[in-house]
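Sample entry copied in:
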Amino acid sequence: KIMNKQGLVDIIHAKLGGTKTAAEEIVDTMFDSIVNTLNKGEEVSIAGLGIFSVKARAARTARNPKTGAAVQVPAMKVPKFRAAKALKEAVK
């Protein structure tokens, strides 16, 4: 099974009650807050879960696997997640 956004909405709705729309707004607000904080270049630390951060990836030359031609990949920022010790232990 795969947990997705709708699954989270269903869990929050079952736990808190109210409407599914309200539960979906909670999930959307949480996701938007994480994304907006990362866009500012800041970290998001959630105790027991982990740390979301942004990592700068340098420009590089890669190869197109189909043609073998060299392709320039520009520098970019990518999201990174480091799992907390509690999460690692829970999954063991």
